[in-house]
Write a structure and sequence with these properties.
735 residues, rod-shaped, eight-stranded antiparallel sheet, Immunoglobulin-like, single chain, mainly beta, 6 domains, DUF4352 domain-containing protein
Length: 735
């Protein structure tokens, strides 16, 4: 409940804000005996009126604390070592008009409290017009300034449309009840003619008071998209609470201001508007606007941060607490190896560009980049929906497929996850510069810029692995390794079939599918030959191994001495290929040196290796009469069962040849299993076998019965490689 003296002084303040003639008339009414209390209450009811709500601040603002001491306006003495100073002033543009906001700071240097009810401020412009100033609702309860302390008092006053800050003067009045005028003027605070030198400097960073705590503000990222004469800007504001208590941030608003003074509200990206700001914790707010008028060349942008102020119980406005100059210079694009932070509604991610490669692929080249994602939180974040492209020579846009390579449903804490960005260009296409552009798909028709990375000059420069080294497959849930084991050349006399056997190991602690690989044969002159793979569908147990086969037909006279295997992990569409997928690209590609081929033909039919099998023949004897040829033997077939293998396309041929080379009889065997019941097959273990041919003319074709030969061939895809050849005597028994 206000005292009568306080109510009287408040009403006198209102009364003295009237124009001079009206004030004199009211004073004469007071002296004619009308009850003062009633008169003042009536005057208060008549004079008090609502102030239009406000929107945003204009460009000029005076802020004493942010100016050099030589530029600060001097205060006025209140006596007893006390003084009053203009701390800040600005003009707010509202929907229905303009409002002056200013703050007076009163310092009490005396030994007793100082009543601010004894003082008032009147505002004039250079033309003599007077503007009624009233205390903000939040300061109306402030009545005293304790001894030795300083207290701020904030006022508002509606002003004309043409009023500018530098034209205003602030007259400090002390109430004098012994005077007919009821007032004593202590002096005026006003701006000099060169008032623009006193405006708050616009900087890129600033520390301001937010909810009573010092907060450092900085615009850390800026981007704008120009389309059809409109711009859609986006920026990131970093806030660091340097105080000792948390701050509620829900009431603050953010505005873009052009160099012409136009103001545009910014929208906070959903969920990036944190409810509170903890001490010593920094957060980033993502702010954006859509389709603003494109400003002229050479313009500037400011970010204006406002907080709500209450004028009356029914009227609020947004008061500017900071203006930050936004650098619109094109940001420095990080090079390969650099990182960029990106914030969306889920949190802040760090994108790191690790590696870029140009890879050979059939009649094209593949451009591929490795990018990792991480974040600082203790809980996992979801994958952003990424889209990407390579920009060649500043103008050619080549879309890239985004391929996650970790078996992860999100981005876990403290761990990076990787994606591959894969694109194709003609292998003859040259370009001098390249840039990788990353975006997040936020809706069917909209995306947000994430990062750009400048890439080094592109050329095919595959890492080379010496024979004996293995290539590792990395990625959560996909750990494996592979390396060449043996090479084989099969022939039919017209062309050769070149095969490389690749050993694959599962390095996971659980059973895992065999990784799908793609390979090419690369000659010494960089010619590339695609390969066919003999795949294996079974999963591998932990530490389990498989033997894959890559092969292709080559010209018979092609030199394969320095042949290399170019091999990588298969990609289909936007995923790592599954067992039944057809590869359309590959990643993590290396070129592997190959072993020397074993071409020595064994002179005996013992321990002949065609990995993973080994075969031996013993107890070989023959029989021939006019009706039938018989070749009897015992075979032993052994397999290294630790490897998962495929026998598709493989056969073993045991060939009988007479001494003069006139007769050749082939016995064709499948290995372990055969497609048809009548097909011959070799089984693991020791077994007796007889080759028989019924041909009455054989005895005439075989001119000599002194010696014969048995050859063993490994056949693959219809072409053969001789493993062993032994000469034996007719009708004898060979162990």
């Amino acid at each position: 409940m206000q005292s009568l003296r306080e109510l009287l002084q408040l009403c006198l303040q209102r009364l003295l804000q009237l124009p001079y003639r009206q004030r004199q008339q009211k004073q004469r009414q007071l002296y004619k005996g009308i009850p003062k209390g009633l008169l003042l209450l009536m005057a208060a009811a008549i004079l008090l009126g609502p102030i239009p709500p406000s929107v945003f601040a204009e460009g000029e603002i005076y802020q004493r604390d942010e100016l050099d001491s030589t530029l600060q306006l001097e205060g006025l003495s209140l006596g007893s070592d006390s003084s009053i100073q203009l701390k800040s002033a600005t003009i707010i543009q509202s929907v229905e008009g303009r409002v002056l906001l200013f703050t007076m700071s009163v310092a009490n240097g005396g030994s007793s409290k100082l009543s601010f009810l004894d003082y008032w401020i009147r505002v004039f412009d250079s033309g003599g017009a007077e503007y009624k100033a009233d205390l903000l609702l939040q300061d109306k309860l402030k009545k005293e300034v304790p001894a030795g302390q300083r207290v701020d008092f904030s006022f508002y006053a509606p002003v004309n449309d043409s009023t500018v800050l530098e034209s205003l003067a602030y007259r400090v009045i002390r109430w004098d009840y012994t005077s007919a005028e009821l007032e004593q003027t202590l002096g005026e605070i006003q701006f000099p003619e060169a008032a623009s030198a006193l405006w708050v400097p616009t900087t890129a960073t600033k520390t301001v008071q937010m909810s009573g705590m010092p907060v450092e503000l900085e615009v850390v990222r800026w981007a704008e998209t120009l389309v059809n004469g409109h711009t859609s800007p986006k920026l990131a504001l970093r806030l660091l609470n340097k105080g000792k208590a948390s701050i509620r941030m829900v009431d603050y608003q953010y505005v873009l201001r052009t160099s012409s003074g136009a103001m545009y509200p910014l929208e906070i990206v959903p969920d990036s508007d944190k409810q509170s700001l903890q001490p010593d914790m920094a957060v980033e707010l993502q702010l954006k606007a859509n389709e603003l008028p494109a400003p002229p060349e050479g313009h500037s942008w400011d970010l204006v941060v406002t907080q709500p102020l209450v004028l009356t119980a029914d009227t609020k406005l947004q008061y500017p607490i900071a203006a930050l100059r936004i650098s619109t210079e094109p940001p420095v694009v990080p090079m390969l190896g650099g990182s960029v932070d990106y914030t969306n509604s889920n949190g802040t991610y760090t994108f790191h560009a690790n590696q870029v490669d140009r890879l050979p692929w059939e009649d094209q080249d593949i451009l591929t980049a490795d990018v990792s994602l991480s974040h600082p939180y203790k809980e996992a974040l979801p994958y952003p929906e990424l889209i990407a492209y390579f920009e060649l020579d500043g103008g050619v846009k080549v879309e890239a497929k985004v391929v996650p390579i970790d078996r992860a449903v999100g981005v876990p804490p403290t761990t990076s996850v990787h994606v591959k960005l894969v694109s194709k260009i003609p292998y003859t296409y040259p370009f001098a510069s390249a840039k990788l552009v990353l975006k997040e798909q936020t809706s069917e028709s909209a995306s947000e810029d994430i990062a750009q990375f400048q890439l080094p000059p592109s050329r095919i420069d595959l890492p080379t692995l010496a024979f004996g080294d293995s290539q590792r497959i990395v990625g959560a849930g996909r750990a494996a390794s592979y390396a060449p084991r043996e090479i084989h050349t099969f022939t039919d006399g017209v062309s050769n079939l070149f095969e490389v056997q690749v050993e694959v190991s599962n390095l996971e602690k659980r059973s895992n599918a065999i990784p799908k690989l793609v390979a090419f044969f690369k000659t010494a002159d960089d010619s590339m030959y695609p390969t066919k793979i003999r795949e294996i569908k079974q999963k591998l147990n932990p530490q389990g191994k498989a033997l894959l086969s890559f092969s292709n037909k080559l010209p018979k006279d092609l030199d394969v001495t320095n042949m290399k295997l170019v091999i990588g992990e298969s990609i289909t569409d936007q995923r790592i290929s599954g067992p039944d997928d057809k590869a359309d690209a590959y990643m993590n590609v290396v070129q592997m040196e190959l072993p020397i081929e074993h071409t020595t033909v064994s002179p005996i039919l013992k321990e002949l290796v065609f990995y993973p099998y080994t075969i031996s023949l013993s107890n070989i004897n023959t029989w021939l009469d006019r009706k039938e040829l018989r070749v009897n033997f015992q075979y032993k077939l052994v397999k290294d069962s630790y490897y998962e293998t495929s026998n598709e396309g493989s056969k073993l041929i045991i060939q009988f040849e007479d001494g003069n080379g006139n007769v050749h009889i082939d016995e064709v065997f499948y290995l372990e299993t055969a497609p048809e019941d009548e097909d011959k097959r070799l089984s693991l273990g020791e077994h007796d076998y007889r080759i028989t041919r019924q041909d009455e003319s054989l005895v005439f074709k075989i001119e000599s019965l002194k010696q014969f030969k048995l050859h063993i061939y490994h056949e693959f895809q219809g072409k053969r490689k001789l493993l062993g050849s032994q000469t034996m005597n007719w009708f004898g028994v060979t162990e």
